[in-house]
Amino acid sequence: MKTIQERKESTPLYGGSGSFVESLYENWLNDPGSVPEGWRRYFEEQGGRGDRPRGPVEDELAQRGHQPRAGGGGRDGAAQRLLDAWRLLGHRTARTDPLDLADVPRIAELEPETYGLSAGDFDETVETDWGGQRQRRPLGELIGALRGVYGSSFAPDFACVSEPEERRWLASHIEGGNGEFGLRDEERRLVLAELTAAEGLERYLHRRYVGQKRFSLEGGDTLIPMLNDLIRRAGEQGVKEIVLGMAHRGRLNVLVNILGKSPKELFSEFEGNHEHLSGSDSGDVKYHLGYSSDVETPGGPLHLVLAFNPSHLEAVDPVVEGSVRARQDRGGDDRGEYVLPVLIHGDASLAGQGVVMETLQMSQTRGFSTGGTVHLVINNQIGFTISDLRDARSSRYCTDIAKMIEAPVFHVNGDDPEAALKAMRLAFAYRQRFGKDAFVDFICYRRQGHNEADEPAVTQPRMYDVIRSHPTPRAIYAKRLAESGVADDDAARELLDQYNAGLDEGRVVEQASMKHVSGAFSQTDWTAFRDQEWDQDVDTGVPVERLRELGGKLFAMPDGFKLHNRAERVVSERRKMLAGEVPVDWGCAENLSYASLVTDNHPVRLTGQDSARGTFFHRHAVLYNSETAEARIPLNHLAEDQAPFMVYDSLLSEAAVVGFEYGYATARPKALVLWEAQYGDFANGAQVMVDQFISSGETKWGRLCGLVLLLPHGYEGAGPEHSSARLERYLQLCAANNMQVCVPTTAAQIFHLLRRQVVRPFRAPLVVMTPKSLLRHKLAASSLEDLADGRFHLVIPEIEQIEPKRVRRVVFCSGKVYYELLMRRRKEEIDDVAIVRIEQLYPFPREAYAAELELYREAREVVWCQEEPKNQGPWYQIRHRLQESLSRRQTLVYAGRAPSAAPATGYAKQHQAEESALVEEALGLESRSEAQNKVKRLESK
User: Fold this and answer.
1) Chosen domain end from 762, 789, 816
2) Which of 94, 341, 400, 655 could serve as 395's disulfide partner, Cβ 3.0–4.6 Å?
3) Beta-strand pair 891-897/861-869
4) Helix (H, G, I), strand (E, B), or coil: what is residue 901?
């Protein structure tokens, strides 16, 4: 006997074919003779008509909320079923490949005969719900319209859209006017001019810079009129900013022909001149660079931004979304009406890169939605040098990933600019209407190789045999306009001559409808944060009276707001902390830092998995009424004119969420933006974002960013993965003050560190190795006075009364191991070993470190103690820093775990033994024990 799940999985509805089978089933219910014989037998075997019991197909359809269409018998019903089949499958027969390499399949469900219709019925009038309304017309006319709308160079694919209102809207806009898309003659001439610009730039660069990489747009030239048309229409509808993300294919063309970058500046980059680099800047290759400009549209000026992007293709996707969300939040654009994200993908990377899925999955979540994104796929039908698309993906289309969020896809032939504009306008209109993503699958080809030095015919001989003789999109469209009398050959040649003349002069050749205007339209101003020093001394203290006032509001609950008993204990304990009855723990200090910032008009945004409560039950930034489930964010109830505190539990993603927060932080200079890993090692999944954006964005592109990464780190016996946040990786990326890496060990330290990040004008990413056991460790707690009068200490000196002259050994360390050393030293009553904490590992605090060494000039041994294995942690990254301030008489010694391939052991006893051994080694207990034993042996003799 099969289980219900097994019965469901055995039906054709289990998987991607559900919508198709559902349509056939509905047809069968209305008219059994309308479906192919095999399906008719299948449905009859399953039951579901008359008095028969329902089978698994009917069970599944009922759970989907399926309601069979009323009526529909006879010729009208057959015509409606034919229409439904074309809406579902018509895109598979469309002529969307400009090279015409693939055989177009014959699909029985798209043939009138399948539904009992013949040529003799073509003159008969039928009624269908065409174009959003009931309509009567001859069957032959309907069939012609179906083939024209769904089987031409424009192929809508929206069967995955389940919302009835959206489906009706799409059908009415696609089918309205029988799918006709008429451009005025002046619009056609403008498209020709834009195609001329696209082709003209590529050919000019090909002649002038022979063999240099530029990742040509050739074959996908229609991208330029598509983007220009989108910008114009967006401006008409009130959009004020567009943020574009794209990889390197066609990027130079977009920079010049869309954003108005000076050709002279581009030529200078081709020639290797980079006048704006400083000594510490690396710069980047020209096809990774971003740009911004202001353009005039029919609706007024619009700010365009092209995001910087490394070679990691789709990695820029969440970065763009984060930048857009920051601009929307900053301007109060809650519905995404004024800032539009546009992502330009490659077909192979869209299908292959996991960050695409993560970014799409964020698109409708509360903390990451941007009101929908327009996606444009430059589908050149090849990935790098792959010779067979069967190796590129398992799905039919590269855009099938869009179905996971039920986004409509409009496949379009890249050699038909008018169809391409139709697709682009429909995608934008859908985004504006429903606030959701839409895709344009712009199917084209790559005239050159992967780069201009590549020979693509080696791996794609058939494709490139066709491409060699295939006319360019400009040539095809110029011929089309000449045949229709819109623009003759002389006019087309004149456009090309004018464009080339502009390039010769190094100036931008603008179209009349897209002039670049002056004026700093963008609101993102980093001026005050440039050329600042990291070691500026700033006061981050907050008076005790103000802390108590803020805490009183934070920890006061409205009448009737009943907390869970565990949350109530936390809040009650924090009230005691504010009263000075008990020391302030980590969670309380962190909340107070946020409270002080938002009431000083610094927005705070915190995301991560379980960040609202805190993975280790310490933060409680969101409190819940245990009786009504009402959520309350106390940090948003402190003052009427305060800045917002935004906290969101993110989806289970690292790469996309970190990329999003990086993008957000680059567009909000005055905000504190934080991402917290559930465990520090989870950041491994976002390593591309750390390597390509966070650590190097400033030196490559001049992009400042104050993003904070909170990475729980500390050896608690939790095994290899949940011990280490891979501290060594971040230190390895540090140079030229590009990042800050800190390991705070007290509640006061995290309070001042977070405040310092925005109070100080220096802006750089901050990586914080946050604790786990220290969150509630009594020795890590602080007084209110520590929060009021202090600042973040780069180095924390010895805290006990130890005579410096008697010290024989100085132990330097960071993080949780300090408390293991301290407690063991107290237990052993050692008074000749000093323990000093280095709380900031980069930029390394040379002066503070040297000052501590100077106190203990009599000490012969200087020890670096760490919990991590020797080949991990800070040792190899800071050893030279520790060494350079030592005197000739002093020796630097390592105390810690032996080198290891894994970050930590998975066995509790082994962990304890290793920790005990490294503490003893650091404190010199082994040598002391040996000396005592030697004395005993001598005495015994």
Assistant:
1) 789
2) 400
3) parallel
4) coil
Give the DSSP H or E segment for 658: helix 655-666
Tens of pLDDT, residues 817-857: 999 999 999 999 999 999 999 999 999 999 999 999 999 99
What band does 209 get if pLDDT is binned at 50, 70 and 90?
Answer: confident
CATH number of the domain residue 821 falls in: 3.40.50.11610
Q: Which long-range contacts (CB under 8 A, 24 or more apart) does 174-181 make?
A: 174/149, 174/150, 174/426, 175/130, 175/131, 175/132, 175/145, 175/149, 176/131, 176/132, 177/131, 178/145, 178/148, 178/149, 179/145, 179/148, 179/149, 179/152, 179/154, 181/154, 181/418, 181/419, 181/421, 181/422
- Is residue 574 within 8 Å of 551, Cβ to Cβ? yes
Domain that holds residue 590: 544-789
Provide mean pLDDT across the span 322-334: 95
- Beta-carbon count within 10 A of 404 CB: 12
Domain boundary among 789, 818, 851: 789
Strand 604-608 and strand 645-649: the pairing is parallel
753, 744 Cβ separation under 8 angstroms: yes
Identify the CATH number of the domain in which residue 716 sits: 3.40.50.12470
Residues 401 and 513 in one domain: yes
Six-digit token pair at 243? 């943020």
Q: Any residues with CB less than 8 A from the CB of 317 and at least 6 apart, and which?
A: 245, 343, 345, 355, 356, 359, 656, 659
Q: Evaluate the CA torsion angle 69, 71, 77, 83 in order and state its sign.
A: negative
Residue burial 71-101, b: 16+ Cβ < 10 Å; e: rest: ebeebbbbbbbbbbbbbbbbbbbbebbbbee
Regarding pTM above 0.85, the answer is: yes
Q: Are residues 502 and 612 in the same domain?
A: no
Give Cα 525 to chain centroid, integer Å: 22
Backbone angles phi, psi at 935, to 5 degrees: -60, -45
Residues 783 and 870 in one domain: no
SS3 of 361-403:
HHCCCCCCCCCCCEEEEEECCCCCCCCCHHHCCCCCCHHHHHH
